[in-house]
Amino acid sequence: MADTEPGAEAGAGKLGEDTQAVLQAARDTAGAYVGALHALRQLFAAEVGLARDALVQALVFLLLAMVMVATAYGLLTALLVAGIRALGAPWLLAIAIPLLLSAGLAWLGVLRAKSLLRHADFEGTRRQIKLGLQGLPDQDAPP
Q1: Could you tell me if residue 88 is left (phi over 0), alpha (psi between -120 and 50 degrees) or otherwise beta?
Q2: What is the C-alpha separation between 28 and 30, in angstroms, rounded?
């Protein structure tokens, strides 16, 4: 037992004041992070609630706007048919012109929607996930 230092047999003593201060600072910091994360979670939950309510209201007003636009479009089409008919065109032609105009506008809308939906397929994200699951290629591997 001559190899041991004096006081080593008694075990660890009390922590010093500096060590206590560092430990207390670490506890305070961890508590602050936990408090910040708790506040962030509450903020996120509140924002999700607001977004949900706003989305419902926006959809109701969008539906109302669609009904009003559809009514206006129907009346405009009727006015166009009456105007073409007043010019002396037969009924078939007076109805066919707004019909073809509406079909053309609908087709352009479909093409535009298809081109926009290509951006909503998360291709980049899916590609990155696939690469992440396969692992990164070795830099030293021969081609």
Answers
A1: left
A2: 5
